[in-house]
Specification:
single chain, alpha+beta, three-stranded antiparallel beta sheet, 19 strands, globular, binds pyridoxal-5'-phosphate
C-alpha cells in the first residue's frame, strides 16, 4: 500500500473534473442552488465534493471501492486489522464498540468517569455497567485513568463481562498501563475497548504514550478530528480482530450512521491519514519541542505550575502526553474559570477547558512559536497583576461510594418517573444523572438507588461552590425518580 495516495479524496476530485450532470442530491448542485453569501464563503472546491453515495463514489455502509481503499490505508497507518470511518464523531464509534460486544443484560466493565456516549450505548444496548473508580488527583482536582490492579479485581469478580472500556489517554493526556490492562483482560477473554478520543496522534511518535492498537487492544474509537487534522465530526474506529468480528462492527456502525454521509468529512479523514502517516513523526517532534519550551517557561512564572513527568505516580498514570499543558492556577488565588475569562478578555486566547484549579491548553501541529510566546506573555502579565495573592483553598476531591444498581440504565430510562424533593429521595431509584464536574464522576446514574450519603455529598459540594450538574432541576431541590407501583392509584 502506498501511504502517499488518497483514494477517496483523489476519487472525488476526479469525479468533479469529469463535469458530471447531477440529477441527484444534494440539491445545491455544487453550490449553484444555494445562498450566495454562504457559497462564496465556503468556496467552490468544498461544494464540488459535497456529494453522496452515488455508485462511482462508493458507500460507507457497504464499502467496496474508494472508501474501502481509504479505510485499508488507514488500518495500515494505525496498525489495525480494520479501520472504519465515522462521521458520527467518536461518540458514534464508541456506541458502535459497545453495541458490537454487549447484548441486553450483558455486563460491561467501565470507569466511572465515562463520556456520555458510553452511557447512551449502555442504554441502547441494555447492558449492565460494572464500575471501576478512576484514580483521583487531589493536587489538580482531576481524575485520571484506572489502575491495572482495579482491572484485575473487576475481571476476577466479573469474568462473564463482555467488554472492558478504558479511557486512554485521558482528556488531560495521562495514560494508564494499557498493555498490562489488555493482558489481564485477555486472560478472561474480555475484549478491551479504548476511548481514544484524545489520542489520535500518540501512535506517531515514540515519546508519546502507546496507542490502543500498539498496546494490543481490540477496538479503539479515535478522534481524528480532535488532534489529527481532519474536519470536526470525523473519527475512526480501529479494530484488531480476534475477540470481535469486523462484520459485526460494520453492521452496527451502519445502524448508527446517517445514510447521507458527508463526503467532505470522509475525504478529510483520507487526507489526515496521509498527513499523519507521512509526516506524523516530524510533526509531533516539532509539536513536542514547542510544548517542552512552553512548559519550561510557564514554570518560571510565579503562581503558575505546569506539571510534567512528576505527575506519574501509579499504574493509572504511567505515561503522559507532553503536548497537553495542564496549567494549575490556584496559587494565583483564581479559579481556572476566572483565568479562562481573563485570557479571553485581555488576549483573545481561548483555552481547551478550565476547571476549579486549572486551564488546559493543547499544543498541536497547528501552533508556532508565536502562540507559545503569547500564552507565556499573557500569564506573566496575569501573575504580575495578582502579586502576592493568597492561594485558592484546596478542596480535596472525594467521591461517594458507587450506589447499588437496581435497574439497568435502559430499564430506568424507559420507566415512568416522578419528581420528588432530593431530601426525601433516599431509597428511591434515580432516573437522572447527577455529577460533579470536575472531576466529572457521576454521583448517581439512572437505575441506581439514592442513599443518604449521596444526598449529603451533593449538599457538601453545593456548599463548597463546586458545580453539581445533571438533573433537570438545576437548583437541585428536586430529582426525577422511578415511579413506585402502588396498589391503588
Ligand atoms: C473522553 C471523550 N470520549 C469521547 C468523546 C466524544 O467525541 P466526539 O465529540 O468526537 O463525539 C469526547 C469528546 O469530547 C471525550 O472527551
Amino acid at each position: 500500500m502506498n501511504q502517499h495516495e488518497t483514494p477517496l479524496f483523489t476519487g472525488l476530485q476526479k469525479h468533479r473534473d469529469q463535469n458530471p450532470v447531477p440529477f441527484h442530491i444534494p440539491g445545491h448542485k455544487s453550490g449553484k442552488g444555494m445562498d450566495e453569501e454562504f457559497r462564496s464563503f465556503i468556496g467552490e472546491n468544498a461544494l464540488s465534493i459535497d456529494l453522496i453515495n452515488i455508485e462511482p463514489l462508493d458507500d460507507l455502509h457497504h464499502p467496496q471501492g474508494m472508501i474501502k481503499q481509504a479505510q485499508d490505508l488507514a488500518a495500515e497507518a494505525f496498525g489495525a486489522d480494520y479501520t472504519f470511518f465515522s462521521v458520527q464523531g467518536t461518540s458514534g464509534a464508541i456506541m458502535t464498540m459497545i453495541m458490537s460486544v454487549c447484548h441486553p443484560g450483558d455486563k460491561i466493565i467501565v470507569p466511572r468517569n465515562i463520556h456520555k456516549s458510553v452511557t447512551t450505548a449502555i442504554i441502547f444496548s441494555g447492558a449492565k455497567p460494572v464500575f471501576i473508580h478512576p484514580e483521583l488527583d487531589d493536587r489538580f482536582g482531576i481524575s485520571h485513568g484506572i489502575t491495572s490492579e482495579a482491572v484485575k479485581k473487576a475481571c476476577e469478580a466479573h469474568p462473564d463481562a463482555k467488554g472492558l472500556l478504558v479511557i486512554n489517554p485521558t482528556y488531560f493526556g495521562i495514560s494508564c498501563d494499557l498493555k498490562e490492562i489488555v493482558r489481564i483482560s485477555h486472560r478472561f477473554d474480555i475484549p478491551v475497548l479504548v476511548d481514544e478520543a484524545h489520542g489520535v496522534h500518540i501512535h506517531f511518535h515514540k515519546r508519546l504514550p502507546l496507542s490502543a492498537m500498539q498496546a494490543g487492544a481490540d477496538m479503539a474509537a479515535t478522534s481524528v478530528h480532535k488532534l489529527g487534522g481532519s474536519l470536526t465530526q470525523s473519527s475512526v474506529l480501529n479494530l484488531r480482530e480476534g475477540l470481535v468480528s469486523h462484520e459485526r462492527v460494520q453492521s452496527i456502525l451502519s445502524m448508527l450512521h446517517t445514510t447521507s454521509t458527508s463526503y467532505i468529512l470522509l475525504a478529510s479523514l483520507d487526507a489526515a491519514r496521509r498527513h499523519l502517516a507521512i509526516h506524523g513523526r516530524e510533526l509531533m517532534e516539532n509539536t513536542l519541542s514547542l510544548a517542552d519550551e512552553a512548559r519550561h517557561r510557564l514554570n518560571q512564572i510565579s503562581g503558575i505550575y505546569c506539571p510534567g513527568i512528576e505527575m506519574l505516580t501509579s499504574t493509572a498514570t504511567i505515561d503522559f502526553d507532553p503536548t497537553k499543558l495542564i496549567i494549575s492556577v490556584k496559587k494565583l488565588g483564581l479559579s481556572g474559570y476566572d483565568v479562562e475569562v481573563w485570557l479571553r478578555d485581555n488576549y483573545k486566547i481561548e483555552v481547551e477547558l478550565s476547571d476549579l484549579y486549572n486551564i488546559l491548553c493543547l499544543i498541536t501541529p497547528g501552533d508556532s512559536q508565536e502562540q507559545i510566546d503569547l500564552l507565556v506573555k499573557a500569564l506573566e502579565e496575569l501573575s504580575e497583576e495578582r502579586g502576592d495573592t493568597e492561594e485558592l483553598e484546596n478542596i480535596p476531591v472525594k467521591v461517594p461510594e458507587i450506589p447499588v444498581l437496581s435497574l439497568s440504565p435502559r430499564e430506568a430510562f424507559y420507566s415512568t418517573t416522578e419528581t420528588v424533593f432530593l431530601k426525601e429521595a433516599v431509597g428511591r431509584i434515580s432516573a437522572e444523572f447527577v455529577m460533579v464536574y470536575p472531576p466529572g464522576i457521576p454521583i448517581f446514574i439512572p437505575g441506581e438507588i439514592i442513599t443518604q450519603e449521596n444526598i449529603h455529598y451533593i449538599e457538601e459540594n453545593v456548599e463548597a461552590g463546586l458545580p453539581v450538574q445533571g438533573p433537570e432541576d438545576d437548583t437541585l431541590e428536586t430529582i426525577q425518580v422511578i415511579r413506585e407501583q402502588r396498589a391503588f392509584q
